[in-house]
Amino acid sequence: MLSVLIPIFNHDVTRLVGELTMQCSKAKIPFQILCFDDGSKEKYLVANRALDGVYGVSYIELGTNIGRSAIRNKLAYNAMYDYLLFLDCDSEIRSKKFIKRYVNEMKQKVPIVYGGRQYGKRPPRSKKKRLHWTYGVKREARPAKRRAKLGNLAFQSNNYLITRDLALEFPFDENIRGYGHEDTMLALRLQSAHHFIKHIDNPILHRGVEETKNFLEKTKEGLRNLVLLRQEYPIMQTPVTNAYDTLRGMRMHKVFRWIYNRWEDRIMENLYGTNPSMRLFDFYKLHHYSRYVENGAPDKRGE
After folding, report:
1. For the chain, first and last CA: distance in Å?
2. pLDDT digit string (tens) for 69-85?
3. pTM of the full predicted structure?
4. Does residue 188 have a pLDDT over 80?
5. Mean pLDDT confidence for 81-100
6. Is the distance from CB of 291 to CB of 257 less than 8 angstroms?
7. In Å, how far are 25, 146, 147 from 213, measured between CA atoms?
8. Can you give the pLDDT at residue 53?
9. What is the largest CA-CA distance in the chain?
10. What domain count does the chain have?
11. In 136-277, which residue ranges form alpha helices assigned H by DSSP?
12. Cα 39 → chain centroid
């Protein structure tokens, strides 16, 4: 009935798998949990090898990193049941009804469902992680009603249920390497084919809050991917692409860049501070997106 698929990269997933095993067993459904490691460090490999021999669990080490898209496609191909539940390895399940809620969707034969994500209620003690936490709380941890208004654009690949047939028909684009927008591309391709994602309140807790330096680098990597993808798929639209298109249409994009450059030091000081502004973070993203559009984004896909 259900294949739970967990791509692993540098995380100990034994606690997550233990909770999933317990809930699937309690739901009395046929299940399997596939855990594919995508080139993690040795200490995580050692920890996760404890999954060998656990009932219903298959743990496999790929040896080399094949990327976020490719490993998800590989998991889907190797799954044995009709429904697939994709979960990121840095997830924590807080609800005892997590699996039960998805089972209810399977019984209704809903083809694809996104459950959402949430972050800790208290900000991290380290100010180095405040930006990612603030962004997560204000932009990603949205209830189903708010996500539903955005439709497929509110989809993320961290916690979703999909039929195996649909996952194989619409695989992740393996040309997208690194971080960012492989889920946006999938959501838009599904929408173009009139497959609309259902949003429910069944979130996981996102534990992988990163330090600001790493978070900003991944943000830029995602923006580079977005520029390259838009060249191939003009249908792609996000808040940052819409903002840039508006500025360019008003011939204000160069003025914006000039203003940003004058205020960049203060903007970066805020983003690295204890109370980062989401509006300034939007300016940061718009600046780098426009820079990549106008100067060219290095194409690292397919490497």
Report:
1. 36
2. 999 999 999 999 999 99
3. 0.92
4. yes
5. 97
6. yes
7. 41, 29, 28
8. 86
9. 62
10. 2
11. 144-150, 164-169, 182-192, 212-232, 239-249, 253-271
12. 19
Amino acid letter at 29? I
Q: Is 7 helix (H, G, I), strand (E, B) or coil?
A: strand
Q: Do 199 and 269 belong together in one domain?
A: no
Burial class for 83, CB neighbours closer than 10 Å (0-12, 13-18, 19+): buried
Alpha carbon 261 to its chain centroid, in Å, reads 30
Residue 97: pLDDT over 60 = yes
Q: Which residues contact 23 (CB under 8 A, 6 or more apart)?
A: 93, 96, 98, 99, 100
Question: Which amino acid makes up residue 288?
Answer: H
In this structure, what are the phi and psi dihedrals at residue 257, rounded to the nearest 5 degrees?
A: -60, -40
Phi, psi dihedral angles at 91 (to 5 degrees): -90, 150
- Same domain, yes or no, for 160 and 47? yes
Pair 122, 218 in one domain = no
Computed from CA positions of residues 234, 235, 240, 243, in that sequence, does the dihedral angle turn out positive or negative? positive
Mean pLDDT for the stretch of residues 12-30: 97
* Contact residues for 93 (Cβ-Cβ < 8 A; gap 6+): 16, 19, 20, 23, 204, 205
